Amino acid sequence: MSANRRWWVSPEDEDSVRKKLLRKTRESPLVPIGFGGCLVVAAYRIYQLRARGSTKMSIHLIHTRVAAQACVVGAIMLGTVYTMYSDYVKRMAQDAGEK
């Protein structure tokens, strides 16, 4: 079995992390928004941890997880609706242009 010596690509040949992140953000801009929302919710809920009162820690963490996931799922849903709408509008414009 021969070793594949081309599996490693030098840093000059591949995109930098920043370029790759910018390219991915342009392709699907709502993913970083959802991730940012997740981080904001998690940071806020951790900040509110002091004032949780008599609520158990496990309940507080479950609520934090659900709120963070809601931000991500909401961003995914917005992206899906936007894509469906833009595809529909493009198709309708093409159909109108052909007539």
UniProtKB/TrEMBL annotation:
Its main location: mitochondrion. It is found in: Mitochondrion membrane. GO terms for cellular component: mitochondrial membrane. It comes from the Eukaryota. Residues 1-94 form the HIG1 domain. Keywords: Membrane, Transmembrane, Transmembrane helix. The keyword Transmembrane applies. InterPro entries: Hypoxia_induced_domain, RCF1. Gene3D superfamilies: 6.10.140.1320. The chain crosses the membrane at residues 28-47, 67-85. GO terms for biological process: mitochondrial respirasome assembly. PANTHER family: HIG1 DOMAIN FAMILY MEMBER 1B, HYPOXIA-INDUCBILE GENE 1 HIG1 -RELATED. This is HIG1 hypoxia inducible domain family member 1B. It comes from Saimiri boliviensis boliviensis (Bolivian squirrel monkey). The lineage of its organism: Eukaryota, Metazoa, Chordata, Craniata, Vertebrata.
